[in-house]
Amino acid sequence: MTGGTDLLYMLRAYELAHKAMDSGEVPVGALLVRNGEVIGEGWNHPIGDHDPTAHAEIVALRDAASKVGNYRLPGSILYVTLEPCPMCAGAIIHARVEKVFFGASDPRNGAAGSVFDLLPSDERFNHRVETEGGLLAGPCGDLLRTFFRSRR
């Protein structure tokens, strides 16, 4: 069950999603926490960086790995405003993230149960990631809808 602290972290991820939107990117933000400390933050910027891997989750994982000096991030919790895609799910698994909270489900590319079930139930991986969707789902989904409506 999520608590008030989880909501605060997701609100920070939501703020980071606004940074992506302000720069013309799909508004997704992510935050990585371990032992009550924020160790990584990121938001989407594949367009601006000309980098197809610059999803919010990947950026937050890179930030955290750089700060802690290790690509493995056991005991960490990722807060992201949109359900991770398969690419991000793979990175999350390899980084040994313990849990993922996500806001809006992604009915087109979601890898935490919406389309693909990589997180947490694919037993072919040697690491499983606990997931919980729906934290701040309304505002996260509204932000994405507003962004895409403005592009049409």
The number of helical segments is: 5
Order of H and E elements: HEEHHEHEEH
Q: Mind summarizing the main beta sheet?
A: 5 strands, mixed
What do the pLDDT scores average to? 96
Distance between the termini: 38 Å
CA radius of gyration is 14 Å
Give the strand line-up of the largest sheet.
2-1-3-4-5
Proportion of β residues? Answer: 15-25%
Number of strands: 5
What form results from the Cα inertia axes?
Answer: globular
* Uncertain regions spanning at least 5 consecutive residues: none
SSE class: alpha/beta
> Portion of residues in helices?
25-40%
Question: Would you mind describing this structure in some detail?
Answer:
By secondary structure, this protein is α/β, with parallel strands linked by helices. It is built from 5 helices and 5 strands; from the N terminus they run H-E-E-H-H-E-H-E-E-H. It has a 5-stranded mixed beta sheet with strand order 2-1-3-4-5. Strand 3, helix 4 and strand 4 (99-104) form a beta-alpha-beta unit. Helix 1 packs parallel to helix 5 (137-151). The longest helix is centred in the N-terminal third of the chain and has 19 residues, at 4-22. The radius of gyration is 14 Å and the shape is globular. The termini are far apart. The mean pLDDT is 96.
